[in-house]
Amino acid sequence: MADYAEYWLDLANYDLSAARAMLKSKHWLYVGFMCHQVIEKALKGVISQDGSLPPKIHQLMRLASMRTFRKNDRGPEKYDPQAQPAEH
């Protein structure tokens, strides 16, 4: 499944390039749209790293809630809404 995660992250990087091009040309609406796409695809890449298939949704908060993300993590972990954020 690592290839599947890499697939999502490659798409996120491609969309990030598009967002940068739109930023350079001052197409602000498209910058926002592409940034949403980047985040969505990056989250789906992280979700799929452990072999899970990401859901077919576009809601960033729902995708993000499937894992916790902390600085210096070694990888995704299951989401625990009661967990306190680590201090760094």
User: What is Rg?
Assistant: 14 Å
**Largest beta sheet: what is the strand line-up?**
1-2
Helix/sheet category? mainly alpha
What's the total number of strands?
A: 2
Query: What ranges have pLDDT less than 50 throughout 5 or more consecutive residues?
Result: none
Helix percentage range = 40-55%
Q: Helical stretch count?
A: 3
Average pLDDT for all residues? 83
Q: What fraction of the residues are assigned to beta strands by DSSP?
A: under 5%
Globular, elongated, flat, extended or rod-shaped: what is the shape? elongated
Domain module tally:
1
Largest sheet, strands/sense/barrel: 2 strands, antiparallel
Walk me through this protein's architecture:
- By secondary structure, the protein is mainly alpha-helical.
- It has helices spanning 2-24, 28-47, 60-64, and strands at residues 67-68, 77-78.
- A two-stranded antiparallel ribbon has the order 1-2.
- Helix 1 packs antiparallel against helix 2.
- The radius of gyration is 14 Å and the shape is elongated.
- 16% of the residues are buried.
